[in-house]
Amino acid sequence: MNPNALHPAGLIVLPILMEIIAGCAPNKPERIGLTGPDVSKVSRIDPDHEPQAVAAAGVPSIDRKSAANRPAPIVQTGRYSVLAATPSHAQWHPLDVIIDVTVPEECISIEHAIHFLLRRSGYDLETSLQADVTELLAKPLPAVHRKLGPMPLKDALTLLVTPGFVLQDEPIKRSIRFFPVDENRGGP
């Protein structure tokens, strides 16, 4: 039996199959631009009088160094879905990442547990600690603190040293330290 391409059923089925196959082809993700100022107006700006020329061209003045002032680029991730390409809150603030961990049995002290929790955060425990903080960190880790989460990393670290101490982070050095509660009331 020889299939005939000009058969009436073939004329109906073949275009339908072609549409189905074309619809299943993977789409290349595209970057969708936001509507912005007219580029032709921006290209005619005089470099000696940029602020005045920018205002005259109707282009908003934007601080180029500030990420907060730039519109978030929109990226198409699928056929019908788009996402704003912006960092998450946890990426801006690593101590706010939500964790759900079980501290291993090898971590026998509170200090070991703190180092375990900080190992992927980019933060370190400050080495010059007060005597009472050092004394607390040397104590055995309570069994109830072996399973932590889901909660922010900052809350888990605070939980390990409460109620007598509070956490203070130093984002520039990416380090944390603990202060006694009564000492913190007057400021760190």
TrEMBL record:
Entries under InterPro entries matching the protein: Integr_conj_element_PilL
Domain of life according to the entry: Bacteria
The protein's name in its UniProt record: Integrating conjugative element protein pill, pfgi-1
Lineage: Bacteria, Pseudomonadati, Pseudomonadota, Gammaproteobacteria, Methylococcales
